[in-house]
Amino acid sequence: MTHVPLRPIGRPRAAFLDDLVYEEQRAEQAALEARLEERRADVRAGWGEKYVDRVHKKGKLTARERVDALKDPGTRIFEIGTFVNHDRQFGKLRSPGAGVVTAFATVEGRHVMLIANDNTVASGAWWPMTPEKIQRAQRMALELKVPVVYLVDCSGLFLPEQSRSFGGARGAGHIFKMNSLLSQAGVPQIAGVLGDCIAGGGYMPIISDRVYMTEQAYMVIAGAALIKGAKSQKITSLDIGGPEVHVHASGCADVRVPDDETLLACIRREVARLPSSAVDYYRGGVGAVDPAQPARELGGIVPADARQVYDAEEVLARLVDQGLFWEVMPDIGREMICGIGRVSGLYTAFVINRQGLVEDPEHDKRKRPAGILYRGGIAKISAFSRACESDGIPLVWLQDIAGFDIGAEAERHGLLAYGSNLIYTNSEKKSPVFTILLRKASGAGYYAMAGLPYDPVVQLSTPISRLSVMEGRTLAIATYNTKLDDDFEIVTEDPEERAAIEQGMQDVEQRIEADMDPYVAASRLDTDEIVRLDELRPWLEALIEMSYQGIGARRVKNARIWSMHDLHELTQGLR
Q1: What is the pTM of this model?
Q2: pLDDT tens per residue across span 44-56
Q3: What stretches of 512-555 adopt beta strand conformation (E)?
Q4: Cβ atoms within 10 Å, residue 423
Q5: Cβ(96)–Cβ(64) under 8 Å?
Q6: Domain assignment of residue 147, given as a range
Q7: What's the structural domain count of the chain?
């Protein structure tokens, strides 16, 4: 019972995929990755060099320069919400990344959440979707219990669009509630005030445990221009709410420092005072080891075409340490793989959809398509998810799913009830859950496998992800079903009517296909970030380490007392 039977999985790529197919698939992914990098660069540029120069002339660093200076040298940041507001215009203006940088970073050896107003975009103003993006980052920090660092340089709401970011359940004011919930949960919050912090920008740092201000920073409910108009007083914003006021009189800030660089050094010292990471403790003397097969091959192994299949085990082999994995309940619900591996030396649970054809337990001589949820697979992943919750094991869902089985037999098998059971399981989880949309994320299958409505801590998409209820062609057929015969051919003999139906079906298909683009989902915060397939391993390393960083915040059982062993023993030989 105490032994976790990790076994090697995966093969060298040439053993299951020839060079020509691999290179073709890799080339297709490379084109999508190039577009991803181009769009990332566009967001990083903010409003461009003119506005970067304007920030520098004020003696300040840009938000991204601040983030780079704060993180540990040689480490990378894991940005989330990069494409919020992608391809949206507000009059003639854009808000790259919704005007705020939110990212996981390592500071003094500890993972933290950084939230930094992009002062090259309307002086760090809050646009539509900016509050939701900030709150999403705060929620991640709350779930993982990692410290939050605010780098505040915010001119308040972007007033021409105020009606779209002020009110509502997730309007700007909810940021301050999240500040309060983080404080209540004991999550450290450290704020650096580095410039204009007006209205909501002034409220944002106040609930933090420590607040630093530079000499040119101020926090005010209303700025000098508004006071001049309302009260006819000639006074500067620094006079109203600069460090002289808030450090020495109001007590709304703790320490004044001369400049950005000094403030960032002070924040690093504050983080260093926090308890160190528990990751090495939970590793139990086991080191972090790379996968036996290189993760960089994932872009050539997973085809962009959702109709083509691949070996899901080969994906897992390139994500887990040394390619070692314990598959749990392997003979039940063969369309799903559930099991345990290590990521960065830490136990991690995985659920992934098999692709291709699998045995049909209802019909001995027949196979059925994988990538679909059947009764056995649903029961299996529900039981597995509950065991992960009981044992405190972080769970990673790797989605490539076309949905639930349908038809008379599926209804007789009670898939609605089995699905409801799984939905309940996902809704009640307290241990960290992460969801990755590898490719297809369709219909109720997306919900059942812990899609974003079921509150995974982070949901990642890839450049080939397709999030929808159903594919465009399928929806076009359903929309025009009364005009089609049993073979889905148009039945009318009228050439004008036929042309109109053909055009209508084509329009529906094209619109749905466009909506399935991962950038559309990312723009609306329907997914947290788009990452390359070969970035999944470093992302998982960071997320799993964050899951184990703190102590005493959640149940983490040692492997001797896992419920997983009981589940494994009770299902041996069953099918």
Answers
A1: 0.94
A2: 999 999 999 999 9
A3: 529-530
A4: 17
A5: no
A6: 45-276
A7: 3
